[in-house]
Amino acid sequence: MKKSLAAALSSLALASTAAFAQGAAPNDAQIAGIVVTANTVDIDAGKLAQKQSKNKDVQQFAKQMVTDHTGVNKQATALVKKLKVKPADSDTSKSLKQGGEQNISKLKGLKGKDFDKAYIDNEVTYHQAVIDALDKTLIPSAQNAELKDTLVKVRPAFVAHLDHAKSLQQSIK
User: Fold this and answer.
1) What element of type H or E holds 124?
2) Where do the domains of the chain lie, and which CATH numbers do they carry?
3) Rounded to an integer, what distance in angstroms lies between the CA atom of residue 88 and that of residue 131?
4) SS3 category, 78
5) How close are the terminal C-alpha atoms of the chain, in Å?
6) What is the pTM of this model?
7) Residue-wise burial string across 136-154, b where 16 or more C-beta atoms lie within 10 A, e elsewhere
8) Would you tell me the crossing angle of helices 28-52 and 56-83 to the nearest 10 degrees?
9) Alpha-carbon gap, residue 171 to 80, rounded angstroms
10) pLDDT tens, 122-173?
């Protein structure tokens, strides 16, 4: 059951990305909306994990997620204001938000090691889905050079988060 939500979240994100690939590519306003939503989803999960987990490594990881993703959102918000672009909803941002809400709801019902495992499993799946979306849709579709550059610059942080989450996943088994 725990892995099924993570798989569903990944499928939602990837299916929405595939929808863009088959139809019109997302515009810069939609890309901004996806970036802000993706970061907000992870901030919300991180805040919950900071409160609910008793594992110091998980708490530390969650704190890093909140800090790093808040920073990315500040960068994205400053950039869209500078570019006079308002982040727009898309099927992808709506799917990410819905998946994030489902994840929070599920996590709230878990405790101890079950919580830690579900949170970290989701972080692995989520970061992989976001990296895939960056590589396959968001970076190639960005029209504005500054937006594209920002996406390229934040990508290594998502990769580092994925690696860190995978490391924690191995230690929590």
Assistant:
1) helix 112-133
2) 2-172 (1.20.1260.10)
3) 20
4) helix
5) 15
6) 0.85
7) ebbbebbebeebbebbeeb
8) 160
9) 39
10) 999 999 998 998 999 999 999 999 999 999 999 999 999 999 999 999 998 7
